[in-house]
UniProtKB/TrEMBL annotation:
Protein species of origin: Amycolatopsis xylanica
Transmembrane segments: none
Domain of life assignment: Bacteria
Alphabetical list of InterPro entries matching this protein: Amidohydro_3 (IPR013108), Metal-dep_hydrolase_composite (IPR011059), Metal_Hydrolase (IPR032466)
Protein name as it appears in the record: Amidohydrolase 3 domain-containing protein
Database matches in PANTHER family: IMIDAZOLONEPROPIONASE, PROTEIN LONG AFTER FAR-RED 3
Length: 483
């Protein structure tokens, strides 16, 4: 990061379609916005060359270590079958006994079924761990199953809690290596205009980020989300959502409590009011109301706001009912399928819809199959906005890349290829999307915290939002990226 006590942003456009101005920063604040041509005085000058000045972008849902690791795994997003996924893995050179990892497979539409025997035939005796695109399934070879004490598992495909516990038991890189990977991933995020993230990693995130901060201050602010297993520890420490973590210089804050109500669409474990086609299954209810309500109440009474994972429409109803019974605000993470009668409850209850628009184009085909006749209310961003809900945009990286412009483009266009928009009535306007990607900020004003991004193009005139060129990113008045 480049630290400057005073910085003059010369010749920026104030927001989408805005007029040219000079913007002066002092310390971590915007202190003045004046017509262009202001004398620089003692300030350092960053020539924006007519770039568009926007509030810094905040990814509201990231699994940071998993994202950093996934950037180094064999990519499986393009696999159209289990056999093709195995071929992609087998083509990757590996040493004997080395754990081979791949990421991003989506088996919801595959004509065949993933199985440990497929991996064993292709890579005999090799430990192989393949992570699904939604992080809710883990496909292991027999040697990898042995590493996590599950040699007798019939298929090698572990779902939900089994997946997450096995993931935690797999061999990983050293802490120093993982921290270096995380630092590199956040530098890349800063280069895309990101000034903040919420880290939903299933660890003691406050301890992890305090350690990283002591070694290398991140170029990004971090909300340290509290995993369910760490709730009592957080309460004993006196942590409250929104508090600045001591000695972090404002870079780390205490986040909400993360609780799962259901699974995911691709694994057919999202909990729905209607069964999945051709199946008696309604999905998986991970935390029933009798357990969810006291858990949320315990967190809220101790100053910790809940963030509830809910993807299926029944899971969202249960989550909203719990917020209503406890009488607290909070967040629902994902909100991918909603009943019409639940839309207005987000605003009524003060519950933020934390959504990941980049997942909508990825999931449109599997939604068409497994949520057939229900897709008009899937990924319903337009309907949520019309009902007064506050939206915040994230990536759920590594489920989607930690690049806010991918989500912004998907929210506006409802497609990411040459196919027509999928349910275009659920698209949201660019201005609302940019605000949702900046945690509700809709412009830059004197007195604001100087978390900013300068794009080389006006987003309203861009031919390709996903490829948006970034001229500079500034966090707390410090330049974290400059093209």
């Amino acid at each position: 990061m480049v630290s400057m006590s005073e910085l003059l942003l010369r010749g920026v456009r104030r927001g989408v379609g805005g007029d040219l101005a000079d913007v002066r920063l002092s310390g971590d604040r915007v202190v003045a916005i004046t017509p262009p041509g202001e004398p620089a005085g003692a300030a350092e000058v960053l020539d924006a060359d007519g770039g568009t000045l926007l509030p810094g972008l905040v990814d509201a849902h990231v699994h940071t270590v998993q994202w950093a690791a996934a950037r180094r795994r064999i990519p499986l997003e393009g696999a159209r079958s289990a056999a093709e996924a195995v071929d992609l893995v087998a083509a990757h050179p590996c040493g004997p006994g080395e754990l081979v990892t791949g990421a991003g497979f989506r088996d919801g539409l595959w004509p065949d079924v993933p199985h440990k025997d497929l991996l064993e035939r292709a890579l005999p005796g090799q430990p192989v761990a393949l992570f699904s695109g939604d992080l809710h399934a883990l496909w292991l070879s027999p040697a990898a199953l042995k590493l996590v004490g599950r040699e007798q598992h019939p298929t090698g495909v572990l779902l939900e809690n089994d997946c997450m516990s096995a993931t935690a038991e797999l061999p990983v890189a050293s802490r120093e290596t993982q921290d270096r990977w995380v630092a590199e991933a956040l530098e890349a995020a800063a280069a895309r205009g990101v000034t903040g993230i919420a880290d939903y990693e299933y660890t003691d995130t406050i301890a992890d980020w305090t350690r990283r901060l002591a070694a290398t201050p991140p170029p990004i602010r971090v909300d340290c989300v509290i995993a369910r297993f760490a709730l009592d520890l957080a309460i004993s420490r006196g942590l409250r959502t929104g508090d600045v973590v001591p000695d972090s210089g404002g870079l780390l804050t205490v986040g909400p409590l993360k609780v799962f109500v259901d699974g995911s669409l691709n694994t057919r474990t999202a909990y729905c009011h209607d069964p999945y086609p051709g199946s008696p299954s309604f999905g998986l209810l991970e935390t029933p109301p009798a357990e969810l309500v006291p858990l949320l109440r315990k967190a809220w009474e101790n100053g910790i706001s809940p963030a509830v994972h809910a993807i299926g429409d029944h899971a969202n109803t249960i989550a909203l009912d719990a917020f209503a019974e406890v009488g607290c605000p909070g967040r629902i993470e994902h909100a991918q399928l909603l009943r019409a009668e639940d839309l207005a409850r987000f605003a009524e209850l003060g519950v933020i819809a934390s959504v990941q628009p980049a997942q909508q184009p990825d999931d449109r085909d599997v939604a068409d199959r497994y949520w057939a006749s229900r897709t008009a209310r899937a990924f319903p961003y337009g309907a949520l906005l019309a009902a007064g809900a506050r939206l915040e945009i994230g990536s759920d990286a590594p489920v989607a890349p930690l690049d806010p412009w991918d989500g912004i483009a998907s929210a506006v266009s409802r497609t990411d290829d040459d196919r027509p928009a999928w349910h275009p009535e659920q698209a949201i306007p660019l201005a609302d999307t940019l605000s949702a990607a900046a945690r509700g900020r809709s412009g830059v004003r004197a007195g604001d915290v100087a978390d900013l991004v300068i794009t080389a193009e006006d987003p309203a005139e861009s031919a390709d939002l996903r490829a948006m060129p970034i001229r500079a990113t500034i966090m707390g008045g410090k330049v974290t990226f400059r093209s």
